[in-house]
Amino acid sequence: MRPFRVVSAVAIVCLAVGQAYAGDGKGFRLKVDGVEVGINPGDSLDVTLKDGRKVSVELQRSETVTFSGGKFSFDHDGNFAVAKTDLGGGVQQYALITPIGTGLIVQEYKGLNPSSITDFVLQQMVQESLNAGAKMTKETAQRTLADGKVLNGVKAETTTPNDVMDYEIVATGRPDGGVLVATFANKENIPKDGAIIDKLWSSLKVDY
Question: What domains are there in the chain, each with its CATH number?
Answer without folding.
Answer: 14-58 (no CATH), 62-206 (3.40.1000.10)
